[in-house]
Specification:
By secondary structure, the protein is of the alpha/beta class. Helices cover 50% and strands 18% of the residues. It has a 5-stranded parallel sheet, with helices on both faces. The longest helix is centred in the first third of the chain and has 58 residues. The protein is elongated and about 60 Å long. 42% of the residues are buried.
């Protein structure tokens, strides 16, 4: 009897242990499934986060303040080139476009408005706009174009390493000044060249200095007449009649905005008018060595895109025009009393009939 009781006790204990083992196994499987579920959920969350981050990056938008000192064809073309480059970059960019209409007070107001609206970048077309932007902000990147002397204008420390929040493209081709003066001296026989410019434009003052040096090299003289506003251009041009054999109008924004006044004086008095940019040849100038302002604006737009994507403007070198060509205007030559030379057909890359 005792043996039988011992057997039943051992058997009961065995079943209890078996049940406990089975129960523990089920809990372990459940814990493992829960852990796996948590890991899967975590992975899904990470993927969702990455997708949302990529979407946010693709949807990131930028506000770019576009400013221009005055309206004339060359500056207009540079602005169009800048916008085209950014539009083709694939970035989501909104433009706030403003024109100072040649008024320095407007320059300050435009830049301050860009700062108030938290623009991501400022495009400054021409020297006064770039100087106004730099004076107002050291934080927002500024990209300029149509600036003749970025170092002299104290916009950058050097062309190779700007060093601050400003960089861009210059409109001074290294050989343009000497080639222009040489053409007037050698092809037109000019001994005295008249220059009308604004003494208040640093870019113009620098170009006149370079023209003086080129004239000395060519053995000719420069006669100067300055203006304060575009309303003075006609009178200043007329003051040089009888003193000069040719006019040379560089990329002075005040004078170029009223170029028709100089063209009128040149045609009325049989004085050839040489110009500093090709859009002014299209408008009626006799000829000029130049380049496309759309191209230097486009190059500035490419620089702006790189800066918006993380480049430091301090490390982005200033670019100079890469292609310089001679364009002549046959119709203007006739109206200004210039006898056309057959060899000019081969000398000029472009001839406007």
């Amino acid at each position: 009897m005792m043996e039988k009781q011992k057997f039943l006790i051992i058997l009961a204990a065995f079943f209890l242990l078996l049940l406990a083992a089975c129960g523990g196994g089920q809990n372990g499987e459940a814990d493992g499934a829960e852990t796996e579920s948590t890991e899967t959920e975590s992975t899904d969350t990470d993927q969702t986060s990455e997708t949302e981050e990529a979407t946010n990056e693709n949807d990131e938008s930028y506000l770019v303040g576009v400013s221009q000192i005055v309206q004339h064809p060359s500056l207009d073309n540079a602005t169009e080139g800048f916008k085209a480059a950014l539009e083709e970059s694939g970035l989501n960019v909104e433009f706030d476009e403003q024109n100072a209409q040649g008024d320095q007070n407007n320059v300050r107001n435009i830049v301050n408005n860009f700062i108030s609206s938290e623009a991501d970048l400022i495009f400054a077309n021409a020297t006064p706009m770039a100087q106004g932007a730099l004076a107002a902000t050291q934080d927002i990147p500024v990209v300029f174009t149509s600036v003749t002397d970025p170092v002299g204008a104290e916009l950058v420390e050097s062309l190779e390493a700007p060093g601050g929040n400003v960089t861009g493209t210059t409109d001074l081709a290294p050989d343009a000044m000497q080639k222009s003066v040489d053409f007037m001296a050698n092809e037109l026989g000019a001994q005295s060249i008249g220059m009308v410019y604004s003494a208040g434009e640093q870019n113009s003052v620098r170009q006149v200095e370079l023209a003086q040096a080129a004239a000395k090299e060519a053995g000719v003289t420069i006669e100067e007449a300055t203006v304060a506003t575009s309303a003075d251009v006609l009178t200043s041009a007329e003051s040089l009649v009888g003193k000069v054999d040719a006019f040379y109008i560089v990329t002075d924004n005040t004078v170029v905005s009223a170029l028709e006044s100089v063209i009128q004086v040149a045609e009325d008095n049989g004085i050839p008018l040489f110009v500093g940019e090709l859009d002014s040849v299209d408008r009626g100038g006799f000829g000029g060595f130049g380049f496309s302002y759309h191209d230097i604006g486009y190059a500035a737009g490419e620089m702006a895109a790189a800066i918006l994507e993380g480049e430091d403007p301090a490390d982005v070198p200033v670019q100079t025009p890469q292609s310089l060509k001679l364009t002549l205007n046959k119709g203007a030559a006739e109206r200004m009393g210039v006898e056309w030379k057959d060899e000019w057909d081969d000398l000029a890359e472009d001839i406007i009939e």
